[in-house]
Amino acid sequence: MLHPIDPVFDKDSRVLILGSFPSVKSREEGFFYGHPQNRFWKVTARVFGEEVPKTVDEKKAFLLRNHIALWDVIGSCDIEGSSDASIRNVKVNDISHILKTARIKAVFLNGRKAYSLYQKYMYPDVKREGICLPSTSPANAMWSVDKLTAEWKQIRITV
After folding, report:
1. What is the DSSP-derived secondary structure letter of residue 8?
2. Looking at CB atoms within 10 Å, which of 33, 80, 102, 105 has the fewest?
3. Considering only CA atoms, which of 83, 90, 140, 87 is closest in space to residue 111?
4. In this predicted structure, what is the pLDDT of residue 42?
């Protein structure tokens, strides 16, 4: 499966957030964190004191307004449905264009799978420490929106 969504960033992006690979719902929608149960948009909106963006255009504008670049570690893989645990045969995205274009101060990873893949495949080339944040996935049900927001506030400090 090839990654179907282009990265979102511009020269003013200061934070890069990387997930693992888009869910089935995100692939259908054609944009990141499309599953209504995923808390990414709710959490990041709370972090920046904004309304939750609804449309793809609103989500892109939200990211750029808040100096966030967004993409995924994996460029292609074998995956069953949306399960990170099923991911095999990983080929990573090349983030060098983002790092050359934007003045990224910090790289954050949305969940342990994204973090472990980043450490294994990307860190040796980019030599930038990644910061692991708790996953906003509905599969990470132990973390409430309030608890996620408290941890995710780190992205604002960096901006």
Report:
1. B
2. 80
3. 140
4. 98
Place of tokens 């504008």: 61
Q: What is the CATH number of the domain that holds 90?
A: 3.40.470.10
- Alpha carbon distance 105, 130 (integer Å): 11
Q: Sorting pLDDT into bands at 50, 70 and 90, what band is 84? A: confident
Tell me, yes or no, whether 2 lies in a domain: no
Number of domains in the chain: 1
- 3 lies in a domain? no
Q: What share of the chain is helix, strand, coil (3-state, %, to 5)?
A: 40, 20, 40
Mean pLDDT of the chain: 94
Which pLDDT tens digit goes with each residue over 140-150? 989 999 999 99
Question: What order of strands is seen across the sheet that includes strand 130-133?
Answer: 68-72, 15-19, 106-110, 130-133
Residue with token string 């069953």: 80
